[in-house]
Each structure stands twice: as structure tokens, then as C-alpha cells.
Design brief:
Elements (H helix, E strand, L loop, with lengths): L2 E7 L6 H9 L5 E8 L6 H10 L5 E5 L5 H11 L4 E4 L5 E2 L3 H11 L5 E9 L5 E4 L7 E2 L2 E2 L9 E4 H6 L11 H11 L4 E12 L3 H4 L1 H14 L4 H18 L25
Parallel strand pairs: 1-2, 1-4, 2-3, 6-11
Antiparallel strand pairs: 4-10, 5-11, 6-7, 6-10, 8-9
């Protein structure tokens, strides 16, 4: 099996080099690396082009306006050639040997259409704490409350992404969660490795836009059969957690999105 990595970016000049280095350092376990840029104007593309020229053909990129993160991710899906695809944010980094660990998990569980590891959550001071993957995914009325871990630590099979028609681009923040609900409903299987594979910070879209993320999670849950009253209870639970972390009200849009996560106090973050 082979793994592709896709990064969606916009004006990420301060972080994109570290992200690219961490991906290309995966060596032979990386089949290709696709960067989808939304039209950066800050020098991001100069960095991307320089790495592409020295990547031996592994890094390809494009730059054009898009209709949001999930529209860009769907485009990246069409450009990737791996059997599995990992979507990595523009200020996240893969840890050494991450794709090798995925290869081992895939070989041991060939029926799986999702492989995932654990994650290091890095705060503003550079301190990291381990975010463990859920061995048993928590549920609400029979559907998953969250992904088993943050989406940056997940690689889905290309066959599943294609069969389920990728991400719903009408979501701004929670499209990865909504995709996972469809993945779950299709009866597809996942397997994990008990080691960290990615480091990510709290600057991502869903980490900053806590209230908007919680509302999109509510929308996805109702769309997948959760009664509105139960979805409202989960929304209130998320709000309570967000008040505690002071990210209840959205801030201005960051121009270097790293991807969505779980808005609840106990779930994954992105």
C-alpha cells in the first residue's frame, strides 16, 4: 500500500516550510505530496515551488481561488495517487516515520479503510501534550461523537474517499466529521497505531472558531439522524466547554487554515 499527503494552504509563509520538510522526510513511504493553494500572496508559493523543484517529482502543487477548505481538499484528492490519503494542515508536521507506522497498520489490517495514530497538541509556548486516539469511539444515539482522533492523524483509503464522494463542501469547518459519519454508516473499518504521528497547534480553523464549529457539528448530527433535541444538548455541552477555554465567539478568519476538529471539551481538536 502507498500513502499520499495533501495540504491545503492560503498565505502560510511562516509555517509551510516546516510542514513540507516533515512530509518529504517520510522517504519511500510517501508516494506523492499534493499542495493545493488558495491563491497566496505572501510568498508561500515561492517556498512551495522551491521544494517542488528539489523533491524529485514527489511534490506537485496548484494555486487558484477555491470555495473553502473542503472544496480544496476534494481537488487534492483528485490529484493524489496513493492507496491512502492523509490531509495535513499548513502548520502541522508529520513526525519521523509516521507513514511507515501507517504502512505497518495497513499491512496488519488489510480490510481497514482508515488508519490513524495519536497526536501531539502543541500550545503557544511550544509545550506538547499527547492526544490519545479513542480505542472505542464515543457515540451519541448510535453515531460517533467525534473522529477517533484529530483528522491530521488520520489517513483514509482512496477507495473509501471516492466511493463516498469525498467531503461535503457546504461545510466550512466540520466536513471531516460529516465525512466520518458517512464512513461509519457505510460500515467501513478503521485501525490505529498507539504512537504519535503528527504534531499540530491550536491555530486551526475549528480551534479558533469554536462556536461556529459546534453549530456545524449540530448540523451534521441532525442530518445523520440525531433528534434535534439531543443535538441541542450536545451543542450546549460544547458551548460550556468553549466558555471554559475562551473560544466561544469566532475571531477573524485566519488565512492559513489547518483543518477542522471536534468542538467539544473532550473531543479532538484541529
Amino acid at each position: 500500500m502507498s500513502t499520499s499527503v495533501v495540504t491545503v494552504c492560503l498565505n502560510a509563509v511562516g509555517t509551510i516550510a516546516a510542514t513540507i520538510k516533515s512530509v518529504l522526510a517520510q522517504g519511500d513511504q510517501l508516494v506523492d505530496y499534493v499542495i493545493v493553494d488558495g491563491g497566496s500572496t505572501d510568498g508561500t508559493l515561492d517556498i512551495v515551488q522551491a521544494y517542488a523543484e528539489s523533491s524529485g517529482g514527489k511534490l506537485s502543487w496548484s494555486s487558484a481561488p477555491d470555495h473553502g477548505i473542503y472544496d480544496a481538499m476534494n481537488f487534492g484528492l483528485t490529484r493524489a495517487s496513493g492507496d491512502f490519503i492523509l490531509f495535513l494542515g499548513a502548520d502541522d508536521t508529520l513526525l519521523e516515520g509516521a507513514l511507515g507506522f501507517f504502512d505497518e497498520a495497513i499491512a496488519a489490517n488489510p480490510e481497514s479503510d482508515l488508519v490513524y495514530g495519536e497526536a501531539l497538541l502543541v500550545d503557544a509556548s511550544g509545550r506538547a501534550r499527547l492526544q490519545r486516539a479513542q480505542k472505542v469511539v464515543r457515540s451519541i444515539a448510535g453515531i460517533p461523537r467525534t473522529l477517533p482522533v484529530c483528522h491530521q492523524a488520520c489517513a483514509f483509503s482512496a477507495r473509501a474517499l471516492t466511493a463516498l464522494r469525498g467531503f461535503d463542501a457546504s461545510y466550512r469547518i466540520a466536513g471531516d466529521y460529516e465525512f466520518y459519519l458517512r464512513f461509519h454508516e457505510a460500515g467501513l473499518l478503521g485501525s490505529g497505531v498507539e504512537r504519535p504521528v503528527v504534531a499540530f497547534g491550536r491555530a486551526g480553523v475549528s480551534s479558533r472558531l469554536g462556536r461556529a464549529t459546534a453549530l456545524e457539528y449540530r448540523r451534521a448530527r441532525v442530518a445523520h439522524g440525531i433528534p434535534a433535541w439531543r443535538a441541542d444538548l450536545e451543542l450546549l455541552r460544547a458551548y460550556a466547554g468553549l466558555v471554559g477555554t475562551r473560544i466561544l465567539w469566532p475571531r477573524p478568519r485566519d488565512e492559513s487554515p489547518t483543518g477542522p476538529g471536534d468542538p467539544s471539551a473532550t473531543g479532538s481538536e484541529g
